[in-house]
Design goal:
four-stranded parallel beta sheet, 36% helix
Length: 806
């Protein structure tokens, strides 16, 4: 139900159709190298083209990029703004299974729909640089990227336990398992040991971590990446297993507390579980491990109630020589450290909870300083060591290095750095993905497909369902499955079997920004000269994929820089991370809730694309979530209608000198706001400017300036106005000499609510005492403060506001 507004004289449909046709015919936004002009490369995180088409979240994402694209173009920068589609993935495959329509056909239909919708928004895109990750021309080079990593040993195959969805017949990431069930279909998942392909991202862990401090990215994104990498310095300590010729390696960040280790805990997936289990404990341990394997790592980390089972075996604490029990618990993760921990219940909260539940001994080895304000029983801070043999009396911080040195001398430990981040699992048991360019000989050994034979094409099949063995539907393409490949070991060309796993979609999106510079190049993944001119990306905008995608693209960038194929080590200079557009009730939009706002409905309702674009930039700071407001969009339409009337309905224009100050102030304000990406306040400044022009009388100069300033937001109407006045679109500059004000308006709030306005001289504006007195004396304000106690008066620096707090 849209908010009804008087549509007035402004007819968005006619104007927008005219300019969209003109831009397309003239290829207005085609980018080309122009040495001497400053380049600006902008892009959004390219969308997955679903059958549902665009939603208002896409519009916010696209419009941020487009607003900046037009702003920089008007400032005469050489701007590149391409577009693409991230098209591989499970949704298209599931749709094919359900309907029989091939992913190729469904994807082509969805892309055509997306393109039409994007064009209706009036986006300033160079459509000659459009890419699609599922086109052979594109995934040929994704396969080439894989082979470069393979040659350097950074793509490898390994057997490991993975989440398996028996319904979708595919591997799942930890975050895709919710309550022991598949996030997509709801089927109960299981752990399965499979051979999978990985990229060795951990090889670049330190540089990925250190490089974050240099990036112009939001702090919250950098924090998320640091946490994901999770670098920990500590020691690896060897604990001999009693009566077994085995050793448990344990990683700890607190080697200074080894004398307080009273038991060990291993992860349910630990490879030594079978050897640690006795006849007496076997049944209990097996059942415990079976249940633990149903939980995701996220659930295991969040589970506050500690569970566990005694393995039946003991180890020797190398520091004390004492025999300590070995337990199995799901709060220990196999992927972190060695999958085993030494438990120090006196100084670790999780270990303390476990010890209390199972009545295990607690030995204090750090004396809490008297000056400490920590009142917890489980002290985890620094202090003097006690009950620690030769290290008694040493400060725990200093003891860390000393204990590690002692362990190394004894040959029972060493200094070690470990990471929470794992190597990147890239295998997917899917048909609709980029085929991995590998084939296997009769012994199961992998061999790369030669580069000159790329792309390994996706074959057509009749049945898109994976087979019961867990292989993707590619295994059903019998003619495709067999291939002749040269075997370096035998020196012969042999018949081999192709890999039927496909690459994780993140592989396709880890290099697409570089393909944009030369999307039609058949000789290179990216043209060396074009990449040198355009890249790295200057501004990248997105509202999803805060961690994985951004880490992976940084990893590939560093790798290809090491190969000498990229002239930079960071792919993105500035990252803008936008918030979501929620439903009017503040809830997330979803089809099931029936609260999705279709942007084309907004356009076709009569508001037009300019109103939609301007509204989404005005709705609030771009980095925050915002709720859709059907009434507010009507207000934006009325604003544009007033702009139209100023340009086309004014019978007699005023003199430019009369409005020089407000005009120059607006130019300065909008320019600075756009430079700082304060889109909502820039629109607000334009609205205030229009209000002033209606009061004072607009000149032709005013209307031309207004059109230029509003063009990044409402390009169709702005272009129509500029054409009418035969004006160029070059961004206006302000004159500092015309910014001097004789009077300044200051807003007065009482408890955060607007209660009055006062006019002051520039000198008075600098004096907070004068501002406070004048604010209190304002007639309307007096009614709200008289007889009440004023707690404080807030006057921010340089802000034109006084807030009286009662």
């Amino acid at each position: 139900m849209w908010y009804n507004v008087d549509m007035g004289n402004y007819d968005p449909k006619t104007i927008e159709e005219k300019w969209q046709k003109k831009w397309e015919e003239e290829k207005t936004f085609r980018a080309k190298q122009e040495p001497g002009r400053q380049k600006m490369f902008l892009a959004e995180m390219f969308p997955y083209p679903s059958g549902a088409g665009l939603h208002v979240g896409h519009v916010r994402n696209f419009t941020i990029v487009d607003t900046l694209t037009r702003f920089y173009t008007q400032q005469e920068l050489n701007v590149l703004r391409p577009f693409g589609y991230d098209t591989f993935g499970l949704p298209a495959e599931n749709y094919a299974i359900k309907t029989g329509i091939s992913p190729q056909e469904a994807t082509a239909t969805n892309i055509n729909n997306f393109r039409k919708q994007a064009k209706r928004l009036g986006l300033a895109i160079d459509w000659e640089r459009e890419i699609n990750t599922s086109s052979p021309e594109y995934y040929k080079w994704t396969q080439w990227c894989f082979l470069q990593l393979y040659k350097k040993g950074l793509a490898y195959r390994q057997e490991s336990y993975l989440w398996w969805c028996p319904n979708d017949q595919t591997v799942l990431a930890n975050e895709q398992v919710e309550g022991g069930k598949c996030w997509r279909c709801g089927a109960e998942v299981e752990k399965k040991k499979l051979k999978q392909w990985y990229f060795k991202i951990t090889e670049y862990a330190d540089e990925l971590l250190e490089g974050l401090s240099e990036l112009d990215w939001p702090d919250k994104i950098k924090v998320m990446q640091r946490n994901w990498i999770g670098r920990s310095e500590g020691a690896e300590i060897d604990f001999d297993v009693v009566d077994e010729d085995e050793m448990l390696k344990v990683f700890t960040t607190r080697p200074d507390t080894v004398f307080g280790a009273t038991f060990l805990v291993v992860a349910p997936e630990h490879p030594l579980i079978a050897k640690l289990t006795t006849e007496k404990t076997k049944e209990a341990v097996t059942e415990y491990c079976r249940q633990a394997m149903k939980k995701s790592e996220i659930e295991r980390q969040e589970n506050r109630e500690k569970t566990g089972v005694f393995s039946g075996s003991y180890a020797i604490n190398p520091a004390t020589g004492e025999k300590i029990p070995i337990w199995v618990s799901d709060y220990v993760l196999m992927g972190y450290g060695e999958g085993a921990i030494m438990a120090v219940p006196a100084h670790d909260e999780r270990d303390r909870e476990f010890a209390e539940k199972f009545d295990l001994p607690v030995v204090k080895v750090i004396e809490k300083p008297e000056s400490s304000e920590d009142e917890s029983e489980c002290y985890a801070g620094e202090g003097e060591l006690v009950n620690s043999g030769r290290f008694n009396g040493v400060n725990s911080f200093d003891a860390r290095e000393q204990v590690v040195a002692w362990l190394e001398q004894q040959g029972i430990g060493k200094k070690k750095v470990t990471y929470k981040m794992r190597d990147w699992l890239i295998s997917r048991q899917r048909y609709w993905g980029c085929p991995i360019p590998i084939a296997y000989d009769k012994d199961g050994e992998p061999h790369p497909i030669p580069e000159e034979e790329l792309p390994v094409m996706i074959p057509e099949v009749e049945d898109y369902r994976p087979d019961n063995s867990g292989r993707s539907a590619l295994a059903k393409a019998k003619d495709w499955l067999k291939v002749k490949v040269y075997n370096e070991k035998t020196g012969k060309v042999e018949e081999m079997t192709r890999e039927t796993d496909t690459l994780d979609g993140y592989a396709c999106s880890s290099w697409y920004l570089w393909r944009y510079v030369s999307p039609k190049d058949v000789e290179h993944a990216w043209d060396p000269e074009e990449i040198k001119f355009w890249a790295p990306t200057d501004v990248y905008v997105g509202g999803d994929h805060a961690v994985a995608h951004l880490l992976y693209i940084r990893f590939w960038c560093k790798f290809f820089n090491d190969l000498g194929l990229l002239p930079f080590r960071e792919p993105i200079k500035t990252l803008l991370y936008n918030g979501y557009i929620n439903a009017p009730d503040g809830k997330k939009m979803s089809k099931s809730k029936g609260n999705v706002i279709d942007p084309l409905d907004v356009i076709d309702q009569g508001y037009g694309a300019d109103t939609l674009r301007t509204y989404e930039m005005f709705i609030g700071p771009y980095e925050l979530d915002a709720a859709w407001d059907t009434k507010a969009i009507g207000g934006v339409y009325r604003f544009l209608n007033r702009c139209y009337n100023l340009a086309f309905q004014t019978e007699e224009f005023g003199e430019a000198e009369k409005t020089a100050t407000v005009r120059n102030k607006t130019i300065k304000k909008v320019t600075e706001d756009l430079a700082r990406r304060n889109f909502n306040t820039a629109v607000s400044a334009l609205m205030e400017f229009v209000n002033e022009l209606y009061k004072a009388g607009a000149s032709e100069d005013d209307v031309v300036v207004l059109a230029k300033l509003m063009k990044p937001f409402a390009p169709h109407l702005a272009s129509e106005i500029l054409e009418h006045f035969q004006a160029d679109e070059i961004w206006p500059k302000w004159d500092d000499s015309l910014l001097v004000e004789t009077e300044i308006e200051v807003v007065v709030q009482v408890n955060g609510k607007l209660r009055g306005r006062i006019m002051v001289t520039p000198e008075e504006f600098q004096d907070k005492k004068v501002l406070e007195e004048k604010a209190k004396a304002e007639e309307n304000v007096k009614k709200y403060v008289e007889g009440k106690e004023i707690r404080k008066v807030i006057i921010p620096e340089r802000a034109r506001i006084v807030n009286i707090v009662l």
